[in-house]
Amino acid sequence: MTPQSHFMVVAPLAAGREADLRALLASMNTQPGLADPHHSLLPFAQFTQLHFARFVLLDDALQADLTTLGLPRPRLPTYLAFMGDCDGPARACLEAMAQRAGAGLGRIFAHCEGFTQGTDLTTWMRAHDRPLAATYVHWRGRSVQQIREEAALQQALSQRVPRSIDADAQRTHQYLRSFVDAEVLAGHLHLTPPAPTPLGWQVANLVHLVGVPLVGLVLLPLFILLLPWLIYALRQRETTDPVLCPRPDPVALQELQDIEDFDVSNQYTAIGPVKPGRFRRGLVTVLLVLIDYACRHVFIRGHLARVQTIHFARWAFLDDKSRVVFTSNYDGSHQGYMDDFINKVAWGLNLVFGNGIGWPRTDWLILGGARHEQPFKYFQRRHQIPTQVWYKAYPGLTLADLQRNQRIRAGLENPAPTDAELQDWLRLL
Amino acid sequence: MNEFDDIQGIVRFGYKRHTEACFVLLQVQDATAARAWLATAPVASAATAEPPPATVLQLALTSEGLRALGVPEDTVAAFSSEFIVGMGTDPSRARRLGDTGANAPSQWQWGTGARVPHVLLMLYALPGHLAAWQAHIEADIAPGFTLLARLPCADLGEVEPFGFKDGISQPTLDWDRTRPAVDAEHTTYSNLSCLGETLLGYPNEYGGYTDRPLLPPQPALPRAEEAPDRADLGRNGSYLVLRQLQQDVQGFWHWLDGVAEHHTATRETLAAALVGRKMDGRPLADAPPGDPNAFTYAADPRGTRCPLGAHVRRANPRTADLPPGEPGFIGWLTRTLGFDAPALAQDRVASTRFHRLLRRGREYRTTESGLYFICLGANIARQFEFVQAAWLNAPQFAGLHDETDPLVGTREPAQDGFSIPQPTGPDQRISGLPQFVTVRGGAYFFLPGIRALRYLGTA
């Protein structure tokens, strides 16, 4: 199994360079916001371990809400963030990009503070690669190579399968197997066996699997002791925290919609300040540890609770945990994504985003909140920021497609399928 | 207490006995004269039932229409953003709705540029009464409006142009507000829909209210339920979506003929698979005799009875908040967390109750045939646009691939397939589906309550 990993290179922009950078990033697109996979500055498609990537300017937006609520407002720089999800270690991916697209990346990062002509790109990117608070991978271990090979297999099989109703299933399976064997021999199809799981990763994963509950166990008595106060503190805040969900600015909304729905998948980037005070800051830290744990050890095969449309997602702190950035890559329309969220996992949204300034009122951390449909929809659109460049390695394919293709391959490689298994398999073709 | 006398009749009635009808699109010419007419326009309310009036007028306005009447900009800005921007003027909306290629707004007969309507008049009449009624109304509006287009309707006897019985599956509105408008899980599908899903100013299925202008108190207007110190311009009104859909009837049957190799029975079976109902309206899914609407697809998760991608299944998948599964707390928890594999497989399409459309369309037959698709709802984005984008035009609907709605879907390359699941063996797969339905025009309207209409006329 090839584990997936993530990078998020973040650096503040140098003074007066924002307009230039926006123009440069826009030149990397074929459609507004949609990357040209073969662009000379950064030919994304050449890096076959890269699933998704984006360049996005994280600006000062919504810090004004602090002023509205009478809170002190720190002036923050605009950051350039370069984020990606890849097979194998993220460092290796960054190094490969520095090696083969160093000039282009250098031109982009030259708009950031502290990046000059003599700067070593690899060292600089590593130094600016931020730790993530939580990450989600739809199907751990499924590599870009596997996705592309299985999509080709599905194409070939669905054209070849005999569609007569009374065909014998076992014979059909035999026939398709020899067809694929011949295609593989001829070099028309590739079915690379999965790579072994790196030992270091396995150890680290095991340590995480056991370590986090152990730490939790150690802290449990303290938690129990503090529980009455925690409940009081939470309820006191939940009932008085101001809600701030005005309608999004129509121009900003239009800008977001203009870069959506060019593919079966879309991207989402949002940013917002965390509610002030140590309680919220501590709470969101703990919750993101738990969410990361659940994503890493529980939701690793095709669903985040009931949601089956998210390829990759991540949460990251910015500016000493005073802000959180959230990004995701999902199937379907924005409207569908939000309704899925409200109707299926509002409780989960409330857990993490309920600590953001202005979130619709929650009860007991998980109730209410995102189920206040209209305020929630305003909130999430208002906190969304446009992504300047977005790359997807397998346009046209949804997660349902990836999963089906994976099952097609598994069924094909099954040496002795039962009749029932074969019927299920044939339905996939 | 319902407020039928403040609600336009079309919300409650389909006016089926009024077999003659014409929709008229207007632009405001003289705002003062136009408002004066609106203040007294003989609009029928939902209270009138028996005997039916010989003639009926219904009226709706676009955001451009409100502006042309001189409604203040901050009032217009309080309507929902979809209504303000409109259907045919925004390329990203067109992309989302599948209005690309032959459906592109640039090809429309009305609804873009200088041909954006301001006011929609819906005229219905008992047989023999339309011509005089229409002449009378058109003479009346002449000082204030210019005529943009007449959209005459045809009476095809409750059958749409392809020949299928139509108008079967609208939701039932909860007029008496017996359905709790609270945000609780509904684990069974219901055809009953909270009033606030259709009418503005009432709580919807989330127990909340949707966008419409709330104004300083006006004697002529009702107060807002959730903000009693504000006047509710939306109350008893609704958003109305109108789309002119041309249907290639000859092409449809000719193509089916070819695929069925001229076997009449096969041809009809195939047509029923595309639609999801037989021509007489009986659903392919199991429904008790006598009620062609009392069913869900829960017993047919693979679509072997009614294909997953059939038109009626895409348009209304009849799902509840949670997919079916084990009763009890443990069953609920495993389904909520996504660990019930069969439930999860069915869960790609959930919660129909938030996406109901109250359909009020009419057929037409001029030099071409088609449908004036009309639906009412309190939230254009969550209802019409969601159904259009996330269900009808989505290649990933219910885990399908390379296909959109067989009737109304856009045909991008590699999205022109249709799969018919079989009890055994691989799906029957049809490819190269032609486009049978083409969008000819469309707009988003506000269908005001009658007091709101008078207010717009006099304010």
Topology of this structure?
The complex is a heterodimer of chains A (429) and B (459).
Chain A: E1 4-12, H1 18-26, E2 29-31, E3 34-35, E4 50-58, H2 64-68, E5 79-87, H3 90-109, H4 121-128, E6 134-137, H5 144-160, H6 169-185, H7 199-240, H8 250-257, E7 265-273, H9 278-297, E8 310-318, E9 323-331, H10 334-353, E10 362-363, E11 367-368, H11 373-383, E12 389-392, H12 399-413, H13 419-428
Antiparallel strand pairs in A: 1-5, 2-3, 4-5, 4-12, 6-8, 7-9, 8-9, 10-11
Chain B: E1 20-28, H1 31-40, E2 55-61, H2 63-68, H3 73-76, H4 81-85, H5 91-97, E3 119-125, H6 130-141, E4 145-152, E5 172-173, E6 192-193, E7 214-215, E8 231-232, E9 238-247, H7 249-259, H8 264-275, H9 311-315, H10 328-336, H11 341-345, E10 358-359, E11 362-365, E12 369-377, H12 381-392, E13 418-420, E14 428-430, E15 437-447, H13 450-458
Parallel strand pairs in B: 5-6
Antiparallel strand pairs in B: 1-3, 1-4, 2-3, 7-8, 9-12, 9-15, 10-12, 11-12, 13-14
Q: Can you describe this structure?
A:
The complex is a heterodimer of chains A (429) and B (459). Chain A contains 13 helices and 12 strands. Chain A is α+β, with helices and mostly antiparallel strands and 429 residues long. In chain A, the strands form 4 sheets. Chain A has a 4-stranded antiparallel β-sheet. Chain A has a 4-stranded antiparallel β-sheet with strand order 6-8-9-7. In chain A, strands 2-3 form a two-stranded antiparallel ribbon. In chain A, helix 5 crosses helix 12, helix 7 packs antiparallel against helix 9 and helix 12 (399-413) packs antiparallel against helix 13 (419-428). The mean pLDDT of chain A is 95. With 459 residues, chain B is α+β, with helices and mostly antiparallel strands. Chain B is built from 13 helices and 15 strands. Chain B has helices at 31-40, 63-68, 73-76, 81-85, 91-97, 130-141, 249-259, 264-275, 311-315, 328-336, 341-345, 381-392, 450-458; strands at 20-28, 55-61, 119-125, 145-152, 172-173, 192-193, 214-215, 231-232, 238-247, 358-359, 362-365, 369-377, 418-420, 428-430, 437-447. In chain B, strands 9, 10, 11, 12 and 15 form a 5-stranded antiparallel β-sheet that branches. A 4-stranded antiparallel β-sheet of chain B has the order 2-3-1-4. A two-stranded parallel sheet of chain B has the order 5-6. In chain B, helix 1 (31-40) packs antiparallel against helix 13. The longest helix of chain B has 12 residues, at 130-141. Chain B is globular, with a radius of gyration of 22 Å. At the A-B interface, helix 8, helix 10, helix 12 and helix 13 of A face helix 4, helix 5 and helix 12 of B.
